[in-house]
Amino acid sequence: MLLGVPDTTSAFPGVDRLGADCRIDPTVTVMRFGERSDVVQLADAVSLYAQTRLVVGDVTADPCVGIRIGARTIVNVGAYLSGEGGLEIGEDVLIGPHAKLLSAGHAIDEGDVVIARNRITRARIVVEDGAWIGAGAMVLEGVRIGRGAVVAAGALVRQDVPAGMVAAGMPATLVRARRLDASGGSPASSASQASGWRRWLGRR
Hints:
By secondary structure, this protein is mainly β. The chain has a single domain (8-203), classed as Hexapeptide repeat proteins (UDP N-Acetylglucosamine Acyltransferase, domain 1, 3 Solenoid). Helix content is 7%, strand content 33%. It contains 1 helix and 23 strands. The strands form 4 sheets. The protein has a 9-stranded mixed sheet, with helices on one face. The chain has a 6-stranded parallel sheet with strand order 2-5-8-11-16-19, with no helix packed on it. Strands 4-7-10-13-18-21 form a 6-stranded parallel sheet, with no helix packed on it. The longest helix is centred in the last third of the chain and has 14 residues, at 190-203.
């Protein structure tokens, strides 16, 4: 018996394609409207825990709209996943409780004083294989989280996090590279990690 773990299901309202052995808590919700059949896709053995919210809104608003989650990824309780600007999550990713991935927002300049009347901004978020988004972290539109990268709990990520790096803080900054033993298989070479550091320093 598994306590606190969602049961496996072969179908779920709002999910267009569901792989084998997916676990989705009955309190998970999908917010969408309009007609498209390829918008929300989960690969094999994805787990979505209680009170997770998937948001795609108007699925006909833009071709980028959609959420794709790779095999064996776990999304913990209370997470908020926005696919309004496109959201791609790789395999074996950990999304911590109450993390928020926000691929869309509202334009705040050159428009109406009432924010709700302004255009929607959209930019795809990509989380590559084996990454970990910590509890309560927030990832903003257009960000790429590299393979095996770590976003610390409570971080606010506005820039890409290179593979194998750890980002923390509000706003997040790179704090170090992960330390892996020889059997762990480094998610990034030392050269690519150094290049990642230089890119960050050049954008600050």
